Please model this.
Amino acid sequence: MEECLRKVAENGDRRAFAELFSYFAPRVKGFLMRGGATPEQAEDLAQDVMVKVLRKAQLFDSSKASAATWIYTIARNARIDAIRRVAKPDLDENEPMLMPEEAPRADAACELKEQAGRISNALQALPPEQLEVMKLHFYEDEPHSAIAERLNLPLGTVKSRLRLAFEKIRYELEDLNE
Amino acid sequence: MSDINHHPRFETLADFAAGRLDEARAVVIATHAALCSRCAGAISDLETIGGAMLSSAPVVDMSTDALERVLAKAGDAANIVIPEKPVSDMPENRPPLAEYLTGPLDDVSWKPVAPGVSQSVLEAEGYRKGVLRLLKIQAGTRMPKHSHKGEELTLILRGAYTDNVGKFQVGDLADLDGDHLHEPEAIGDEPCICLIATSAPLEFKTMIGKIAQPFVGL
Model:
């Protein structure tokens, strides 16, 4: 997928973009629907996200993030912007992205691949109840208290499950970041 | 900015990475992360988890003409976005904070709120209500003892202050919950300027004017 993004960035390769689209667009749509968007809203937003992917492909830096991570941040920000437009209809289109500048790391591409593999293994190894709150944390826009209510759990339990899940994944990442 | 000793709680970073913070708090965290490689690294790890979550999200078919529509909307290559680089290392010139300021910190319209203390409210109520403001405390001024209603993030942009937690200087961030009681004192030779995000109670805007609200929820 990183290779596809590179081709899109270099010469606007339509076939490479179509490949990115067929993998990511349905997942972005599913991601947004898990967060409470209607199928129509999710379709529109997923299209907007893919427009941004195409327009911003030159900003993708494979030493800083994988394609999935980069597209995740675009989808996350698009969701924030969409909710904000409802709250504040007169907002400027070209608002700042709420993104910190990240420092590139040494041997980044290789490291990223290893990192993605480890994270995905660590996620699969999580107990189901921890994976569930981790998914809700990323998919949903609702406060943790609302998630707790829906799962019929005390808020403290949701928070501690989330903390345990993060700790395990960070433990996997730790020696990579040294 | 290598000398940062106070960081956001991990939970706050996790909320930022998942897009769960209100706009005001997101601006403060992003500004801190622009100065702090440790927190930028933690956010980047969290976003990698987000990327894995996206990859494992349910697959929902797009409409049949979606790709054509996207290609049409994207138009030609003239639309490609190149980010602007910050003009200096000063925190107020870094994105995203720079976008919320109308000019240099010295030219902000400060409104006095107490002896030795003035503030400037920034437009960032956002998609979820929160209040973003700058507070300037003259050196030697001690703030009245107070606790915090709701969660509050304070990032030091200039100068320094001390309280019972420790010394806070440029780049340091205080991530306080509702129970924390303190009376910070600005120290050093210059005024201490902080960027503060508060999760705002509803009555903030409706009942009290923006000028008279400083000690509510401070």
About this structure: Residues 25 and 50 of chain A are 7 Å apart (CA to CA).
